[in-house]
Design brief:
- With about 375 residues, the chain is an alpha/beta fold.
- The chain folds into two domains: about 230 residues, Hypothetical protein VC1899 like domain (Restriction endonuclease-like) (Rossmann fold); about 130 residues, Arc Repressor Mutant, subunit A (Orthogonal Bundle), CATH 1.10.10.
- Helix 4 runs parallel beside helix 5 and helix 9 packs antiparallel against helix 10.
- The longest helix has 19 residues.
- The radius of gyration is 28 Å and the shape is elongated.
């Protein structure tokens, strides 16, 4: 699908708030009704906050008697009726599931980071959805985590912004958006303000998108902040392959990869070839005996699996055996490393039936013991 967010069937606005729920209505106004609005009409809205923030949002935004979210929709019918109710106000919780009233300690900040990351990961799974994230509300750490999570998970159609409200309307407790019929507000020093002079604009924030560095388990499952950051760091780090045959341990960079003995031996065989300066091979040139020697070091020379494999390869390498082991190895690496598996996958050269395969890692990046 194209990357124009306004043309996606599901359009999501996500914001974090604390004690200033008006950030949501200001952002929604700037997106849809302001003179410079980009025309992104959300079909649903999600809010991430604390229990105190939820109470404020419920009263100030959603209350049937004067809720400002309902007032905004009534004043500007072009916005439509985006889905937003109490069920779409997500409360940050502690590790034991207890809702957080506020975010003050390092532990509570860690819970906020995990909650924000998990929600952004969830909302970016739908390929038919475009996500618009506002970092204007909540504590500064919440805005930072939300922006960071966006950088980790954002796709081309997703956008990040901060809403800008002109002074002295910014932080005025009675200002939620410029109403269609201007109102008079009073400041603490009894100065009168005309909402007709208020300017609410959206500053879109460009980010580096790092989604390609995330493994599938974080794209499709629960996403913690620290695990996600580590995964991206590993995908950007110089590749290094360390294989311990006796311990049956494989390290791809700083990540341990679990491989069954036959797959581990197959990877070690390719790594041995790369270290010897023979990284690319056609299956007819593959030496079955050298693979069996490595397999023996992994499972032991009396293992039944070794005996069965030796019988199969007693006349040399088989094409099916070669191709099946390559496919199974690459599938295992993909499943555990995601896009970070790329340096450890087998390259191809030449056209069929003369295709050659092999590791492209330099010999200095490989250790086998």
């Amino acid at each position: 699908m194209i990357a124009d967010p306004a043309r996606y069937p599901r359009r999501i606005l996500l914001a974090v708030t604390g004690l200033s729920p008006q950030v949501l209505t200001e952002t929604l106004y700037a997106l849809t009704a302001a003179p410079s609005a980009p025309g992104f009409m959300p079909t649903e809205i999600h809010l991430l906050t604390t229990t105190m923030g939820k109470d404020l949002a419920r009263t100030a935004l959603l209350h049937p008697d004067g809720g400002h979210f309902h007032a905004l929709l009534a004043d500007y019918p072009q916005i439509g009726q985006p889905a937003f109710d109490e069920n779409r106000i997500h409360v940050i919780r502690k590790a034991d599931g207890t809702p957080l009233p506020d975010i003050r300690t390092p532990e509570e900040n860690a819970c906020a980071a995990d909650a924000i990351t998990a929600l952004v990961a969830e909302l970016t799974r739908d390929e038919d959805a475009a996500l618009h994230v506002s970092i204007a509300g909540g504590r500064k750490t919440m805005g930072f985590y939300l922006g960071y999570a966006f950088s980790l998970y954002a796709r081309p159609q997703d956008r990040l912004s901060h809403v800008l409200v002109s002074s002295p309307f910014e932080n005025h407790p009675e200002f939620f958006f410029p109403p269609a019929t201007p109102r008079r507000l009073t400041t603490r020093d009894n100065t009168h303000l005309d909402t007709a002079t208020a300017a609410v604009t959206l500053a879109e924030i460009p980010v580096v998108r790092l989604r390609h560095g995330l493994p599938a388990r974080l794209l499709h499952g629960q996403a913690g902040f620290n695990d996600t950051v580590i995964a991206v760091q590993e995908s950007l780090a110089p590749p290094r392959l360390d294989i311990d045959l006796s311990a049956r341990r494989v390290m791809c960079g700083n990540r341990a990869v679990q491989l069954p003995p036959a797959r581990l031996a197959w990877l070690a065989w390719w790594a041995t070839l790369a270290r010897a300066g023979r990284p690319m091979l056609h299956w007819r040139d593959a030496d079955a005996k050298s693979y069996l020697e490595i397999y023996a070091r992994v499972v032991g020379r009396d293992a039944d699996a070794l005996e069965q494999t030796a019988k199969r390869l007693h006349e040399g390498m088989e094409k099916d055996f070669f191709e099946q082991n390559n496919a199974k190895l690459e599938r295992a690496l993909h499943d555990q490393l995601g896009p970070a598996a790329k340096p450890y996958l087998l390259d191809r050269s030449g056209k069929r039936p003369h295709t050659r395969r092999g590791l492209s890692l330099p010999a200095t990046a490989i250790t086998i013991s």
